[in-house]
Each structure stands twice: as structure tokens, then as C-alpha cells.
Amino acid sequence: MQCLEKYRRKLVSDANRQLRVIAESPDESAVHDFRVVIKRLRALYEFLGGIDEKISAKPLLKSYRVLFKSLGRIRDAQIAIHLIEDLDALPEKQTRALIEKLRAGIDRDYGRYREIAGAGRSPSIRLPTIRASGISAAAIFRHQPVYLESLLSRLPCDESRMSADSWHRKRILLKKYRHNLDAFSLCPGQTVDQRTLRQISMLEQLLGDWHDRVVGVEILQSLPGKAGKLAPLIQKMTTQERMLLGTARLYLAKFARELQDAGTA
């Protein structure tokens, strides 16, 4: 299964390269890219675990998930800073002070990350190869369409009753679907329904932008004694959050209807 192994090997190499950068500073691109790679690796090993239950992504990635979560606070603050700059909802002096406060928080969280990772050194990721899993290429190719279909089948729902956590889980489903397509993109004979992919990409973008604002609001509201002073900014983020989620709800309903129609055709 050389095509899938090539993908796995690239992910591990990318993750280790980003960790070397992060060992020197909380570089924004490196923090983002490392977290994306870990999500892709988890999706890959969850896919393999669907074929052989002895393969479990959670324990395999446990130690690396600790780094992932430690960097999550840094990434959230970096996203919040960009939103604050883009929305321009506060006086310039107040905006600068707020961003400085968030950057100070990033420095503190980076210090905690270095304690976890081991100051002065870069952790290294090592994971079993596809060959070591013992799963045949035939079994992998048989399972892939079944796996993709199972992800799509979990998308339709009553959107009006979904909580923020429920929407976030839908976003994760979409990511897993796209990560699986990316994993098999190097394999010969693979075809992709471009219409479905475009719709999934649109939903991902909408829910990603929505989630950024959810996180931004949570960060601003958590600042001691700041909620009142930041009310215009929080209100602007909240308004955008609702608009994005409303649009995502419409797209998901339309997509779900098309999936249902395709299933009964």
C-alpha cells in the first residue's frame, strides 16, 4: 500500500519539521500546520481502525495529542488577534492594549508548552507504518467507500435543535471526509465527486469561520473585568457568528436533501 504509506510518511515528516520550528518560538504557521497534521494522522489511523479493531488512533497518538492540546490555547489566541484586527470595533489604543494582553498570554502558554515538550529540545513523532498494520491493500480499498459513506450518512440532522458542540462535531466529520480523500489522492484509479467535494469545502469554510468567532468570543469573555469594555467587539463577533451559522444551516440542509435524493434514486 505504497500510496497510503507515502502520505503517512509525509505527515510524520511534516509534523516533526513543525515541532522543530515550534521549539524555537510559537510561530503561527508552524502551530497551525502541526495541529492540522495531527488531525490528519488521527483521521488516517481511525480509518485503519475501522478495518482492524486492534488499531486504535487514541493510544497511538496520545502523547502527541498532549502537545496538540497544549498548542491549542496558543492557536486560539492567535485566531482571536486576527479577528480583533480585522473587525476594528474598538478605539485603536484599546485594540493595541487588548492584543498586547493576548500576546502576553501566548508567551505564558508557550512557556507551559516548553515544559511539557521539554525545554531546549524538539519532540519527535513516530508512528507504525501501513505495512506494520498487517492490513492488505485489498481490504483498505474495499473499506474506503464504506467509510466515506458512513461519514456522509451522519451529516443529515435536525439543524434547528443542534448545539454549538453538535455543529462542531459536524465540522469534524467534514474534515475527516476530506482528510480521507487527501490520503487516497496519491493512489491510482481514485475518483472524486467534485460536486460533493465543493459542497463539503463550502460547509467546512463556513463552520471554520463560525468556530473562530465562537472561540474569539469565549476568549474575550474570559478576560477578567473586560467584558463590559469589550462589548462592541463581542457583539460584532457574535453577530457574524450567527450569520455564518445560519448560512451553514442552509447549506447543510440543502446538502442533506441531495444526499437523501441520491440514496433513493
Head-to-tail CA distance between termini: 34 Å
Unreliable residue runs = none
Strand content: under 5%
Give helix % range.
over 70%
**What count of helical segments does DSSP give?**
10
Any overview of this molecule?
The chain is mainly α and 265 residues long. The chain has a single domain, classed as CHAD domain, CATH 1.40.20. The protein is built from 10 helices and no strands. The longest helix is centred in the C-terminal third of the chain and has 34 residues. It is flat.
Give the secondary structure arrangement, pairings included.
Layout: H1 2-22, H2 28-49, H3 57-60, H4 62-87, H5 92-117, H6 130-133, H7 137-153, H8 164-183, H9 194-222, H10 231-264
Helix pairs in contact: 1-2, 2-4, 2-8, 4-5, 4-9, 7-8, 8-9, 9-10
Can you give me a brief rundown of this structure?
The protein is mostly helical and 265 residues long.
